[in-house]
Description:
single chain, alpha/beta, 7-stranded parallel sheet, 41% helix
Amino acid sequence: MKIFFITGTSRGIGEALAEQLMTEEHHLFCLSRTENEQLIERAIHSKTSMTYYPFDLNQLLQIEPMFTALFSMIPQDIEITGFYLINNAGMLAPVAPIELNSAQSMIENVSINLLAPMIMTANFLKHTKEYEGDKRIMNISSGSARYLLPSQSCYSTSKAGVDSFSKSVSLEQLNQPYPAKVVSVYPGMIDTGMQAEIRATSKADFPYVDQFIQMAEEGKLQTPEYTAAKLIELLFSEDFGSSVVVENM
């Protein structure tokens, strides 16, 4: 059985990832602030083993005990063929010139986008250190880490941090007896709540808002389902980890 830990499964890419990974050969640990009741129902109908764990990733100091709890739920009598962590949860706000952003909004952005994936990764690796099989970590980054726009300084900086963090951890794993593979991936522009959020931003706060509205109106955004399928294809690919930052799936 393959074991998956997926954050941000209440909607968007995370929900689509969980749904497409549903099979009797997988156990899914789904994490989001609120339970996704529809996802739980789909797991029951597909006979997928799923543990839905409501958790607010802003509670950084609780991630370590959470992982201890999650690993204690894994049955001891099953054969595990792989452990997979998908750090998908993210937030765009605040979208505004930096001097207009509150300290609290900046702290929440970096906590969700960067610090939580760092702590999740640390605990995932700690609990699987002695496991000899397949171990993979996929961090959902963004093209905003490289291609910068005004009013997205917090989001771009935190995603650039995810890329650097992934590279560093990948280097560390080279020296481990049972290394994990790590990838930070740019999923593209997707029709999710995050895109709706940026389209609702005022032009005064985000000068490029009209271009984002136009892309949506012209149907140039990917669906969460299409994006999830491409991410899963990457996750299971033979060359996963050969390039730590994947800009084009």
